[in-house]
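Inverse folding, one chain.
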């Protein structure tokens, strides 16, 4: 996985048909997705439950590109190895999920994955200051994590701008997660983001039987930021 700052659209399979994950991943990639974003929720750190490493492993053969795993779980450390073995290219952990994010980031890299750190809307940009030389991605949550289809929180655009300045020349992606649409995407791209997670805005109107809307939705976001 090489580093570049071009805009990447990462559909979240939280909005896919859960009975058809493999085909859904193939459909979004065929329709122009750059990364596949996988939302893991534990019903404890966030008020919703999705799936774990075995589902990631089952999905892996159906994803040609980057499998981007967003862990909304606490604790995180006991599960890192399992997600890396399941084939995650990027593993992001929440800074709020425990007292030892520095150790968690080390463990993610030691397991062979790129390390991401995710920030809830109430968590300041400065909280990652001492992690900048060891992370590959910072995920800025633009909704409170747990559910798809929520409204974009505009105050986070300023946080993206701050993070972009803090990152400087370091090879760190800024990922935006939550409420990304053709209307909100330009705000965060202008502020410095390069990975756009989008669940409902990509999957709306389509299905594995009728995947063309996925392509139209992805192109609409891409067009809005180019
Ligand atoms: C929220 C998840 C997101 C979510 C985004 O907790 O981390 O990835 O699926 O969904 P939309 O794009 O519908 O806001
Ligand atoms: Zn996510």
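Residues assigned per position:
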């Amino acid at each position: 996985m090489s580093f570049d700052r071009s805009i990447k659209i990462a559909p979240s399979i939280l909005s896919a048909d859960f009975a058809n994950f493999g085909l859904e991943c193939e459909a979004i990639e065929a329709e122009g997705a750059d990364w596949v974003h996988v939302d893991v929720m534990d019903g404890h750190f966030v008020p919703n439950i999705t799936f774990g490493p075995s589902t990631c492993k089952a999905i892996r053969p159906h994803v040609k590109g980057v499998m981007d795993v967003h862990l909304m779980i606490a604790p995180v450390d006991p599960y890192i190895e399992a997600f890396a073995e399941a084939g995650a290219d990027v593993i992001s952990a929440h800074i709020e999920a425990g007292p030892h994010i520095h150790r968690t980031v080390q463990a993610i890299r030691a397991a062979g994955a790129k390390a991401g750190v995710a920030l809830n809307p109430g968590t300041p940009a400065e909280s990652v200051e001492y992690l900048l030389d060891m992370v590959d991605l910072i995920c800025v949550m633009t909704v409170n994590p747990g559910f798809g289809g929520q409204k974009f929180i505009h105050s986070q655009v300023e946080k993206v701008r701050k993070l972009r300045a803090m990152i400087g020349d370091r090879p760190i992606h800024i990922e935006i997660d939550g409420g990304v649409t053709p209307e909100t995407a330009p705000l965060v791209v202008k502020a410095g983001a390069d990975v756009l997670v989008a669940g409902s805005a990509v999957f709306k109107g389509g299905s594995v039987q009728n995947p063309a809307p996925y392509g139209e939705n992805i192109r609409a976001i891409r067009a809005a930021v180019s």
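The chain has a mean pLDDT of 98. The chain has one domain: 8-225.
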